[in-house]
User: Fold these one by one.
Assistant:
Number 1:
Amino acid sequence: AGAFAGVGLAMGDGLFGPANAALPRAWLGDLLGLLAGLLWALTTVVIRTTPLGHVAPAKQLLYQVAVSTAVLPLLSLALGERWSFDFSTFATISLLVQALLGAFASYLAWMWMLAHYPATKISVFVFLTPVFALLAGAGWLGEPVTPGLLVALTLVAAGIVLVNRKPAAV
């Protein structure tokens, strides 16, 4: 509960704070981030409860990337998104980091862990995702780390520690 509260606190300004005149729909990104987390949890349940759980993690990742590669460009066109292939060096490096670390390495590790450990033991580490995102945003993009975000990080860390602590001997 503490870790979830920390994530909620970190996203609170974007979801419930005053609208940003420069980015009036900025809350939508936070809402989509929450939806992504929900869908990730659903993917975990599907993998654990269907024959996909017996498929090699690399093949599971291939299935997900193949479907995403086919569906997302079509969805983008349907939503009227403007396509631009004029990438800066920064954008190109960012895309490569996201593809190699964010998609390939992290999901492959996650699916491997699902095959070898109970989901109840590893699922709490999903709460580290926003921590890494915050650190990457601060380090890579120079985004500010506010006192509220530090409190949120503390709640996330406390939640992870509490869930993984060994019960006291009786």
Note: The radius of gyration is 18 Å.
Number 2:
Amino acid sequence: MTDPKGTAVALCGFVLALAPGGCEPPVQPGQAPAAIVHDSAGFEIVESLSPAWDAGSSWTVAGTPEIVLGGFDDMMDADSAHLVWNIGDVVALSDGRIAFLSRGEKNILVFEASGTFSRSIGRVGQGPGEFRNPDHLQVLPGDTLVVWDFMFGPVAYFNPSGELLRDWRIDVGALFGATGKPNQMSTERVHLPLADGSFIVQAHLIPGDFIPPFGEPYRALVEFLRVDAEYMVHSLGRWEEREFIYLQPSGPPSVPFPFGVQLAAGGTPLSVYITNSDRYEVHQCSDTGVLRRILRRSVDPIPVTADEIQQWKNAYARFPDWSSWDRAMAEFLPRVRPPIAGLLVDSEGCLWVLDRYGADLSESEWSVFDPRGHWLGTLELPLVRVEWVGEDLILGVRQDPDTGVQVVEGYRLDRRAGRGSL
């Protein structure tokens, strides 16, 4: 399949071969450089060689949660009022309160910093301030909470007290007119809303009657598009979506530790970060799709073990027969994990890259890059699904593998030791 970054990669190769003098000023004798920066035609290539943090300057994360929202402590005394299903986005307000989207209950739940329940905002319906299938939750300056409904439904703005401030609807005709292409599948939802009211959609670059290859992993070509208030479209490039395998009806349409495009946005000015996950490389673009920087690290491939594959299979209890899946996968090289499994931009504009996670989803490892693209270091977190990283708090979601009950957990983050490296 065509490399979605072909132009940029070819240009980078040219720069590295012919312009080695474009690096940062040399370091002191005996001191190894932490990163090499190559200036190219309008963008930088930042190759991180070692972390900026040392043993005394690394950020630290508490090993136990300071905040736990939802769930229950005692199965014998379970109160269903505390149970939350299908948790979506989780955000922190400026006064320490925490809000998260319950896609199952179709509302926003707000908790005090102490963990005490404060209020519920919104409900099921099609009127003002009501949701059909809430998909995204944002927090804007002033603690305005914004909910984006699925399938280009209404966008509702609330103050922290739950009062509806305003709502608006995406002009679906204008959107499809701006993003649609002949004989291709239409985009179905807002992939990522942005703080200025614009949003990113994922357009499938395959025919509507596309039939995937049978019995081999494949990744469909997609294009990310930012749509502004005037329905002007800014391309963020072509990429390859999550890896699947087509074996229906005799097997699951997935593979363990799949490769797939990852996208995140944040910082001031706004940056959009995208990776194809097939190498440790992240593209940092402006909101109009202009490439600003390419971040790179060299990492060794991590094989997927037989135990991890079996643990992954165990989660698919509805597929009792794995013979066709095993035969198909035996035709390919042993699987390795994608070098990048996720992206997140924190409240301070730093990029967090999910390097790896446990098969049991109990812990993960993240590399942190400053806004200039320099690798600060790596942190181990006691959860995988991280939803929000603030100045001193990490919020994520944990799900009990047996009961399916979800809780929001908050862990203290101490950045003080690493301030000098930013």
Note: Residues 6-63+170-421 form one domain.
Number 3:
Amino acid sequence: MRATSRRKESLERFDWHTEVEMVEADLIEPADLDALFQDVDVAFYLVHSMGGKDIDFEEQERRTAENVAGAADRAGVKQMVYLSGLHPRDRALEDLSKHMRSRERVAQILLNSDTPSLILRAATLIGSGSASFEMIRHLTERLPIMTAPQWITNQIEPLAIRDTLHYLVSAADLDEPVNQACDIGCGETYEFADLLRIYADVRGLKRRVHSIPLNLPMDRLSGFWISLVTPVPFQLTFPLAQSMAEDAVTEEHSIRDIIPDPPGGLIDYRRAVELALAAEGDRGVPTSWDRSWTRFGDTEEEEGVPAWASHPTDPEWAGKTLYEDVRTETTDLTAAQVWPIIEGLGGPNGWYSAPLLWRLRGIADRLIGGPGLGGRRDPRTLKAGDRLDWWRVTEVTPPNRLVLTAEMKVDGNAWLVFEVEDKEEGGSTYTQRALFEPKGLQGYLYWWVVSPFHSVIFPFMRRNILKAARDGVDSVI
């Protein structure tokens, strides 16, 4: 397996980089491509130029496709596979959106080359990292009422990432080369508004979606609004909003003659959303705190969620929103010296900062049906599963790590993580993280309201925990 990027470092951040041959190449430079395609049997063309600043992405994609097709022809590649976009086949090329027009031109360049090319035309892909799915996710999470242009009533046939990968992987093992464009979809059509409503239903959110009863040219305004409300950049939301002005459903099913349906059949949109959310970890605590990717729970296959679903290959705006308050300090104390204070948090020992604010938050939680400040099982030791005020001990690894999951009444999931790592030269690094994953608009509002209090509570907590640890060491001395 060979993978390419303009910068090899871009590939090295992925878990799988040691399992592939990495080649540095710029597809816009023909001189870079001969070595890239040498001894290649099947090439997957999964490249687009949307999102780049100050470039004509149509022209960029045309030149790139011509370069790739020429290099593949010279190298004698047996099969090219291109993931393209789904659009009405009876629409003239010049009448398509800029996004879809570029996709179709790339497809035609590949089909007219000497290398057999299988063009897979898909609409919205459902899974973390898909720009269209991230738009659906963040619009639904953040807006209780959505008023949108009439394009939200257009027909669309989405496809789960799982099934997309089935087609791509199967294309590497065809009985004979194929030079053909095929539509791929889940087999069921929806209005775009339905995609928003079903996502909301899966997440347990009450959402209302309305279309503006006027046929107005609102693609630029829609793209701007979506980029404002969601983390997806305008360079992507604008061309995608343009493309949504057209239906995107399969019009032919020749793919079945080339690649059979996946085992168990194609999955519908609701199940695709359920799998996408499960892969992100409705079942676990974040195991990485890097904002550039989201990885929750373990990587074992569970309830139809494959291990690859949690790999950190998504753009930084993909995945659920995760807010953090991180406090770090280097100290000459060892982890073993700091740990007794961390393990003794809560209950009668308190939280080493703003006790009045903690008590008021506990009272408020009780009033709305939460556990409040419920104490702890043992004044000195903790074990996984213990209740600790309104927290539950998720992980305890003396003397380095304590993870607490919130059980208070709040619209979202919250964690409090304490880590102490010894340094080779002596002393240790203390890190304290408060994390919050909002659910719905109320969750976002909650974080914005409490953030000013965090700027008081958490710095004092860090300082006072280390001070208490030092006082304990000094008293022993």
Note: The chain has two domains: 40-281, 323-476.
